[in-house]
TrEMBL record:
InterPro entries: DNA-bd_dom_put_sf, MerR-type_HTH_dom, MerR_fam. Residues 1-64 form the HTH merR-type domain. Keywords: DNA-binding, Repressor, Transcription, Transcription regulation. This is MerR family transcriptional regulator. Pfam families: MerR_1. PANTHER family: MERR-FAMILY TRANSCRIPTIONAL REGULATOR, REDOX-CYCLING DRUG-SENSING TRANSCRIPTIONAL ACTIVATOR SOXR. The keyword Transcription regulation applies. The keyword Transcription applies.
Length: 120
């Protein structure tokens, strides 16, 4: 299918599809007239990409793990491992943000909030 049809069927703009192709997230064949031709399963892959993005995965992570997931003997198991790793990273970020919040709270309302906190 050509890029316009893929955009319509996937809900992703043509510019975004061109970008995804440029970074290797999707691949289309070139027809003799220069048009891109995408396989029908690209629509399903783009749904996976959008879901992964909504779960906090970056395009780089999706591109890096996409082939891994497609080639895994049990993609459910492989995906569960990726999700567990993402949960670990989220937990680390939450702890760092909680520490930052505590530091900001301890400085708020002080005479000089940007002065190094001696309690740290």
């Amino acid at each position: 299918m050509r890029i316009g049809e893929l955009a319509a069927r996937s809900g992703v703009s043509k510019d975004t599809l061109r970008f995804y192709e440029k970074i290797g997230l999707i691949a289309g064949d070139r027809l003799p007239n220069g048009y891109r031709d995408f396989r029908p399963e690209t629509v399903t892959w783009l749904r996976h990409v959008r879901t992964a993005q909504s779960l906090g995965f970056t395009l780089a992570e999706i591109a890096r793990h996409g082939a891994e997931l497609r080639d895994a003997p049990d993609s459910g198991e492989a995906l569960s491992a990726l999700l567990a790793e993402k949960i670990r990273l989220v937990d680390e970020r939450m702890a760092a943000l909680a520490a930052l919040r505590a530091d900001l709270t301890s400085r708020a309302g002080t005479a000089c909030p940007l002065r190094a906190n001696e309690a740290s």
